[in-house]
Amino acid sequence: MGHLARVDLSLRLSREEEAERLRRGGTRMMQLRLVMAGLLDDAEGRRGLGPPLCVVMEGWDASGKGGSIRRLVSPLDPRHVRVASYAAPSPDEKRHHFLHRFWPALPGWGGMAVLDRSWYGRVLVERVEGFAREVQWRRAYDEINSFERSLWDEGMVLVKVWMHISEDEQLERFERRRTDPLKSWKLTPDDWRNRGLRPVYEQAVEEMLDRNDTDWAPWHVVAGESKRYGRVAVLEATIAAAEAGMRRQGQEPPAPIEE
Within 10 Å of residue 149's Cβ, how many Cβ atoms? Predict the structure, then answer.
């Protein structure tokens, strides 16, 4: 059974439970960010920069990436987090190694960044659409693992999320977007075309999850069939990874704020 088939898409949250967990998680995320930025003391009363925190968001079209990113960063001071979105590389970017264009967005110590799409485009869309030669995308799995390992060795916390939804749910969301005058701009002919290539993309996703799931940068495959569940899962996975990353660097997270 593949990685995607093992995801329980029946997971749901009520509106009330989502709101409560987003509220508590948002408060905790803000607290951790201030400690990691050197603006608050850690559990041992010390103050200093924490490890860089980088959240990489991938997933199916209309899987809820944007909504999950908004819930993750909305409690934070915008000066303390950078959100970078990536589409196809520009002609100039194509002249460089495929990882080159992502370096400027990576956070330094005490910083946080969220990437909407990432270097995994090399083994997904560039592989499927033929924008990368076979020798290039086959080589990329090891290149990515080495790249992520080098970031981890320098202290970075990498949170990699794949938002998963079923074909039926994706179709329903596409149809709702098409009929909503405020959301129809999100739906493009490429979205419909990519949907027709889903079996090919699934094969690429499975290989990516298999070959790029490492001890230093594991994948979090999030059930996004329920947007409420997916948003909370992304936030809580990021909090857990941030806490573990702080401890790895000798910075004990403070106790959660009592409310």
Answer: 15
Reported pTM: 0.94
Question: What does the DSSP 8-state code read for residue 219?
Answer: E
Q: Which two tokens stand for residue 259?
A: 């409310």
In whole angstroms, what is the distance from residue 185 CA to residue 182 CA?
7
Q: Decide: 225 and 166 in contact? Cβ < 8 Å.
A: yes
pLDDT tens track for 134-177:
999 999 999 999 999 999 999 999 999 999 999 999 999 998 88
What are 12's two structure tokens? Answer: 């749901």
Give the separation between CA 47 and CA 257, rounded to whole angstroms: 17
List all residues 6 or more positions away from 33 whose beta carbon is below 8 Å from its beta carbon: 76, 77, 80, 81, 112
Contacts for 101 with CB less than 8 Å, ≥ 6 apart: 86, 89, 93
